């Protein structure tokens, strides 16, 4: 069939879809992974839980609100877009909103989303959780909106919803949803804003902004009478928010209905006579102050009172909610005192209440049992005994109301014998967490028995050993930190060498990492270790523990991908590929896999390579980093058009964007960040500049230069994020306004410097636009005639188009050049390994730098953000120089290619160096073992193992061939047999040997190459080798055994090329960069 007939312009498939064009079928399967990754909670289930927790909604109880003037105006007036329901604790705000939701759910075709904030659960008490819940509910209920979310998710994955920039990404998605549905009505409801403890005003600003910008969306928010919320609303909103205030006469009939209903239910269940029933009702009316929660708590208390004592008891109930809490706490104490020896222990009850008040999220009955040291039945009895404050719903412990927790932590409860010492509770939770983790965690706790099993293949066993300690594994450091804010001296003791933290890490660190991976909480573990490191800084008597924690943090960063995705690799790759002197490796040496008989030779100490960022599918062709003191963001663009944005301090991938290639090569792509803002990124593709909003992950505009032109330099103008500068290869400088998408100024570089020079054009350009309004341009023109030298470099003023200086370094080749960020210095590589630093204003050569390897070509130059350091890439190394003194500050060995790029990041503490499709993050300050690299050979070109696994032959790119005796662990032969080696092979015959075929550079008459053979006799070749019972293979980053993943290879330990690896029997030899050979032998 004619291929031309199988063409259409654009077809898109969403969800589970199939596209059929001619003979071609494309199937897209989506298994709801996007929604699963988006889901933090399901607000619909939260609503169901809340209603059941409060005994259900009474019919018509809240119908009064539908006739309220404010509600009616909100519902029917186009300008009434925001309704604020406010009232004191217990006034029925949440249940009122549940009734409103039920009513609005009947309105079709309006879309509805809601969220219930809950201060006691960190997953329900932050602004990003609210926004995540709203987006989840809209996407789950409406397939058209789900497609909008999937569009972003396909490019970024789960991190889009959960990383440090999740708020901005979700806000952008939410904005897109509102834009796409602007012709359809929508209701958004957020309950208990005052319980949004993290990002309250960020959330309020979002509500205010979108309620003003989106007339089709109606908002309801509720909160207690908090003055800060009221003030923020009054100051930020143009029109006064509509209000329904509970506690006034508006809902008096509703309260009376509720009170009567609750008394009826109580009287029926407890068999009250008429007098008792009427007395209870009368006392409730006198003391409840129209507070629904007061009534509910009082009814709950009377459920446990003998009917003959009800009248006396109800007269003891005080007026007001806090007074009732105090009374119920006193009653709890009296019941303890009256208990027999088989009753509930007062101390245990206090402990249960304290733990419930101190934890970062609601915990399960199993978790609480482990934390207080009782079995599940006793714990359930303790919770039931404390029913006035906490309750068990399903398997989770909740406070009956946020006000109950607030009371227990308030001064009003401090005089009670059951009062809570929150600092002591944090200490107890910290110590208990260490103790129970220490007694539970172990190697392969789920008994997976497969070193390469993926976290996505794991299901918890029926009797999950982590069930009781999930909370402990994730939050133990947080309780140490919280305790430290109250008791610095006591925390110092815990962090001493040989203290409880030291003991735990030395016993359980790897087991803890395995558990974090199984619990899918590894990133939280990294943050916990970083927090632990900051807690221990500058404390005396902690040097050994500090070193242990630093080593642990390095191990987690270097092996993050392997451990997070393959839990049992924490005992394999994370140990055997860590340095010999790693404290963690030494402490857990007995955990190293026994199936690896000979382990690879690793470095003595951690190298400056912190982490390798992986994710691109094609070679990286451009990089950019943000400036400013908190610079930590790097963007990388690959040849296939994908842009990835990374946080180099955590290794997190923040965004994945798609760069249109418009049919052009992306090899010359450029990117730039503004100096102090990571919310925007600009990138080039041919003659176009794309403007990316990193809050939404969307391309929000395009700047169009002249058709056919090629943009070769790009920068923001100064510290502003509203203007940028471009330079084309033809010499056109344009200053653009990013809001209007139009150039505000165009300047032409003088023609005699470029176009008049024998078909010349600009082949390199650098822009320096710093915050001092100094904007300079460095250009390097050249002739297309290879017999002529490059033209001298010229420095230009961008604003005036005037040439400020000409710098002639007499370079003959297309060399890397760089312009410092302040525009004061120019660096060039006029020849070989020589680097020169010039003063831009005068053209004077200030420094001449000589790289160590004189025969090696420099391929990239970059200045630090403060212009005090210069970094250069040469074959397999990065050299860091002082611009002022010309001194070499550090030499960092890392895999590089001729197309590698580098950028200083994180206030010049790190370097980001691209290699192929990866980015290596290097510590600029960490000195490397230079003696090790002084012995390093040239790259390995071929690797060959003998059939009996006794010998290893290595052929180097420099022409040297080495033979190693693997049993003795040493080189037994090393020579340069020929200038060109064609083939090497082990021969097991009567005279076992290594045969080497090659030739010297001599051409025999007739133009034929004379192939010669040389033999190295190896008697040991005739000896038998081990019998392999498994088949080993290297595939990508894995060593496989019998086709099953066995050992993850970190990037720096992978074969340099497919021919620099060899597998024979149970032995594997890998030739990596810098001439390093890694040899492993497995148990045969």
UniProtKB/TrEMBL annotation:
Where would I find the WD repeats?
A: 613-656
Q: Which UniProt keywords apply?
A: Repeat, WD repeat
Q: Which residue windows are coiled coil?
A: none
Q: What is the lineage of its organism?
A: Eukaryota, Fungi, Dikarya, Ascomycota, Pezizomycotina
Q: Where is the NACHT domain?
A: 81-224
Under the heading PROSITE patterns, the entry gives: NACHT, WD_REPEATS_1, WD_REPEATS_2, WD_REPEATS_REGION
Record bears the keyword DNA-binding: no
Spell out the InterPro entries in the cross-references.
NACHT_NTPase, NPHP3-like_N, P-loop_NTPase, Quinoprotein_ADH-like_sf, WD40/YVTN_repeat-like_dom_sf, WD40_repeat_CS, WD40_rpt
Specify the protein name: NACHT domain-containing protein
């Amino acid at each position: 069939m004619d291929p031309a007939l199988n063409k259409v312009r654009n077809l898109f498939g969403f969800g589970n879809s199939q596209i059929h064009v001619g003979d071609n079928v494309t199937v897209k399967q989506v298994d709801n992974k996007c929604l699963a990754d988006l889901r933090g909670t399901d607000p619909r289930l939260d609503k169901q839980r809340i209603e059941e927790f409060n005994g259900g909604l009474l019919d018509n109880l809240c119908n009064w609100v539908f006739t309220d003037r404010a509600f009616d105006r909100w519902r029917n007036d186009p300008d009434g877009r925001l309704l604020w329901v406010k009232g004191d604790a217990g006034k029925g705000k949440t249940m009122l909103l549940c009734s409103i939701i039920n009513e609005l759910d009947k309105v079709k075709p309006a879309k509805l989303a809601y969220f219930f904030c809950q201060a006691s659960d960190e997953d329900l008490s932050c602004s990003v959780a609210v926004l995540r819940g709203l987006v989840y509910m809209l996407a789950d209920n409406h397939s058209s909106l789900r497609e909008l979310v999937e569009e972003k998710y396909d490019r970024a994955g789960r991190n889009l919803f959960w990383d440090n920039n999740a708020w901005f990404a979700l806000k952008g998605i939410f904005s897109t949803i509102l834009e796409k549905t602007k012709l359809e009505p929508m209701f958004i409801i957020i309950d208990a804003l005052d319980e949004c403890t993290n990002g309250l005003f960020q959330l309020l600003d979002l509500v205010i902004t979108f309620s003003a910008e989106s007339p089709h969306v109606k908002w309801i928010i509720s909160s207690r009478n908090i003055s800060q919320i009221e003030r923020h609303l009054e100051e930020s909103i143009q029109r006064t928010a509509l209000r329904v205030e509970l506690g006034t006469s508006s809902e008096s009939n509703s309260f009376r209905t509720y009170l009567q209903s609750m008394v009826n239910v109580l009287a029926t269940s407890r068999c009250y006579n008429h007098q008792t029933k009427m007395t209870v009702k009368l006392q409730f009316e006198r003391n409840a102050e129209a507070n629904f929660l007061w009534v509910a708590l009082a009814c709950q208390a009377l459920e446990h009172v003998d009917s003959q004592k009800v009248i006396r008891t109800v007269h003891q109930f005080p007026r007001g909610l806090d007074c009732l809490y105090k009374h119920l706490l006193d009653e709890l104490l009296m019941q303890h005192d009256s208990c027999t020896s088989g009753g509930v222990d007062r101390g245990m009850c206090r402990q249960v209440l304290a733990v419930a008040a101190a934890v970062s999220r609601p915990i399960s009955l199993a978790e609480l049992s482990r934390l207080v040291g009782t079995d599940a039945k006793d714990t359930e009895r303790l919770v039931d005994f404390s029913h006035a404050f906490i309750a068990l719903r399903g398997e989770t412990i909740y406070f009956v109301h946020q006000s109950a927790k607030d009371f227990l932590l308030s001064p009003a409860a401090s005089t009670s014998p059951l009062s809570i010492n929150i600092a002591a509770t944090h200490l107890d939770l910290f110590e208990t967490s260490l103790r129970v983790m220490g007694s539970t965690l172990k190697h392969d706790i789920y008994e997976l028995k497969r070193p390469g099993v993926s976290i996505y293949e794991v299901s918890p066993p029926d009797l999950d050993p982590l069930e009781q300690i999930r909370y402990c594994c994730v939050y133990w450091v947080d309780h140490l930190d919280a305790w430290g804010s109250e008791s610095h001296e006591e925390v110092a003791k815990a962090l001493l060498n040989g203290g409880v933290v030291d003991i735990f890490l030395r016993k359980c660190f790897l087991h803890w990492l395995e558990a974090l991976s199984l619990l899918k909480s590894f990133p939280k573990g990294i943050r916990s270790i970083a927090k632990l490191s900051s807690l221990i800084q500058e404390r005396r008597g902690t040097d050994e523990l500090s070193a242990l924690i630093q080593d642990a943090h390095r191990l987690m960063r270097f092996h993050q991908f392997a451990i997070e995705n393959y839990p049992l690799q924490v005992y394999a790759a994370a140990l055997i590929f860590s340095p010999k002197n790693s404290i963690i490796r030494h402490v857990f040496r007995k955990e190293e896999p026994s199936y690896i008989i000979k382990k690879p030779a690793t470095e003595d100490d951690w190298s400056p390579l912190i982490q390798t960022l992986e994710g691109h599918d094609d070679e990286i062709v451009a990089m950019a980093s943000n400036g400013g003191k908190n610079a930590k963001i790097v963007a990388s663009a690959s040849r296939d058009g994908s842009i990835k944005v990374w946080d180099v301090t955590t290794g997190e991938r923040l965004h994945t964007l798609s760069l249109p290639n418009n049919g052009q090569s992306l090899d010359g792509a450029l990117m730039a960040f503004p100096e102090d803002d990571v919310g925007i990124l600009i990138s080039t593709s041919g003659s176009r500049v794309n403007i990316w909003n990193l809050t939404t992950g969307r391309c929000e505009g395009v700047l169009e230069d002249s058709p056919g032109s090629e943009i070769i330099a790009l920068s923001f103008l100064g510290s502003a994020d509203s203007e940028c500068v471009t330079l084309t290869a033809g010499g056109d400088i344009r200053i653009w306004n990013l809001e209007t998408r139009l150039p505000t100024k165009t300047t032409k570089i003088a023609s005699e410097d470029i176009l008049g020079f024998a078909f010349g054009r600009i082949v390199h350009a650098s822009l320096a636009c710093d915050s001092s309004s100094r904007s300079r341009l460095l250009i390097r023109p050249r002739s297309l005639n290879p017999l002529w030298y490059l033209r001298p470099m010229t420095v230009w003023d961008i604003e005036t188009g005037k040439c400020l200086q000409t710098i002639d370094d007499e370079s003959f080749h297309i060399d890397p050049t760089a312009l410092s960020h302040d525009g004061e210095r120019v660096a060039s590589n006029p020849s070989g390994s020589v680097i020169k630093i010039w003063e831009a204003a005068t053209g004077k050569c200030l420094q001449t730098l000589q790289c160590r390897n004189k025969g090696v070509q420099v391929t990239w130059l970059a200045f630090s953000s403060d212009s005090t350091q210069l970094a250069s890439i040469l074959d397999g190394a990065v050299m860091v120089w002082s611009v002022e003194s010309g001194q070499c500050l550090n030499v960092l060995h890392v895999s590089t290619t001729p197309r590698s790029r580098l950028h200083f990041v994180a206030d010049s503490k790190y370097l980001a160096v691209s290699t192929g499709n990866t980015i290596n993050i290097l510590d600029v300050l960490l000195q490397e073992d230079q003696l090790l690299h002084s012995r390093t050979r040239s790259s390995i070109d071929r690797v060959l193992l003998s059939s009996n696994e006794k010998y290893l032959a290595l052929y180097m790119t420099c022409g040297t061939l080495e033979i190693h005796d693997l049993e003795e662990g040493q080189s037994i032969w090393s020579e340069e047999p020929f200038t060109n080696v064609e083939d090497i092979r082990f021969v097991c015959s009567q005279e076992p040997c290594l045969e080497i075929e090659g030739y010297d550079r001599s051409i025999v008459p007739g133009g034929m190459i004379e192939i010669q053979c040389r033999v190295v006799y190896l008697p040991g070749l005739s000896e038998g080798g081990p019998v392999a019972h498994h088949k080993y293979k290297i595939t990508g980053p894995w060593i496989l055994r019998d086709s099953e993943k066995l050992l993850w290879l970190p990037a720096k330990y992978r074969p340099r090329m497919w021919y620099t690896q060899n597998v024979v029997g149970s032995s594997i030899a890998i030739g990596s960069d810098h001439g390093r050979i890694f040899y492993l032998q497995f148990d045969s």
